[in-house]
Automatic annotation (TrEMBL):
It comes from the Bacteria. Residues 201-283 form the PDZ domain. GO terms for biological process: proteolysis. Signal peptide: none annotated. Pfam families: PDZ_2, Trypsin_2. This is PDZ domain-containing protein. One of its GO terms (molecular function) is serine-type endopeptidase activity. Keywords: Hydrolase, Protease.
Length: 296
């Protein structure tokens, strides 16, 4: 048997094994896929697969179809969690994407019908999901060099060892198949299982990074800040006295040089908390206190 035949057999065995943890999700006109997250019926799928929030059904690997309810959804990360009326399901083993490189083999496994479907390709891109999508610090997303086959969204992108590296979606990136990787996925799933939604901190400002003039940079001990280009009416920022044209240089005692740092400082734990914010206005540093809100 040559190496190509061996690879073919190995891939078929991999898809068969992973397929025991991939289900069909019927929540729109065309069925999508889902991944078994826990044996007690917790299913993770792509948010855009869920068009109907009632009357959802899940097609199991056994061939049975069971009812499912929507636990919660997060359009920003394109993740939704269902609870199927089933037990004893087989979760797929997951691994973070830390050791993946562009060019590594990937298999997309979905179940848009009664049987599994698979597509074979490579890691095309490893990128950083923006903090606004990830919820706090940036997470990695995958782009796979695979055709965006209808019904694959909500399935699994698995590596050559049979471990899931991302939840398959076509909802985050405009080109083909991409995937939400484990760090962001776990955080979102845990939050949805606990609260049914993602709680995100909110200041109510539009910002853009700017370089500080030399005298201001010396005074603030940093070269960049965030210029406020918009303040929403009745927002935490407006109530705190922040104005259009102010430059944020610190929040909660930590320097703010860009949007990524600002969002990383605004986790769920800060919602409702009063935190100090330092701004530059008219060349002078000013300290305000802002009560962090929750985005609705």
């Amino acid at each position: 048997m040559n190496s190509v035949q061996t690879l073919s057999l190995d891939l078929a065995a991999l898809v068969e094994a992973v397929g025991t943890g991939v289900v069909r999700v019927e929540a729109r006109r065309r069925a999508g896929s889902g991944v078994v997250w826990a044996p007690d019926g917790v299913i993770v799928t792509a948010d855009h697969v869920i068009e109907w929030e009632e009357g959802i059904h899940v097609g199991l690997p056994s061939g049975d179809t069971v009812q499912a309810s929507l636990v919660g959804r997060d359009p920003r990360t394109d993740v939704a969690v269902l609870r199927a009326e089933a037990t004893g399901l087989t979760p797929i083993p997951w691994a973070p994407p830390d050791d993946l490189r562009v060019g590594h083999l990937l298999v997309a496994v979905g179940r848009p019908g009664r049987t599994v479907r698979a597509a074979f390709g490579v890691v095309g891109t490893l990128g950083s999901m923006s903090p606004a999508r990830a919820g706090s610090e940036a997470d990695t997303y995958l782009e796979a060099d695979l055709s965006a086959v209808p019904g694959f969204s909500g399935g699994a992108l698995v590596d050559a060892g049979g471990k899931a590296r991302a939840l398959t979606t076509t909802g985050l990136r405009p080109r083909g198949i991409s995937g939400v990787t484990l760090p962001a996925l776990r955080r979102v799933v845990d939050a949805l299982l606990t609260d049914g939604r993602i709680r995100r901190a909110y200041l109510g400002v539009g910002t853009q990074p700017v370089r500080l003039p030399a005298p201001m940079a010396r005074r603030a001990n940093q070269e960049e800040g965030l210029l406020i280009v918009g303040v929403e009416t009745e927002s935490p920022a407006e109530r705190a006295g922040l104005l259009l044209g102010d430059t944020i240089v610190a929040l909660a005692g930590e320097p703010i040089r860009g949007v990524r740092e600002l969002l990383a400082r605004l986790g769920e734990a800060q919602i409702g908390a009063s935190v100090p914010v330092r701004i530059l206005r008219g060349g002078e540093a000013r300290d305000h206190t802002i009560t962090v809100g929750e985005r609705r």
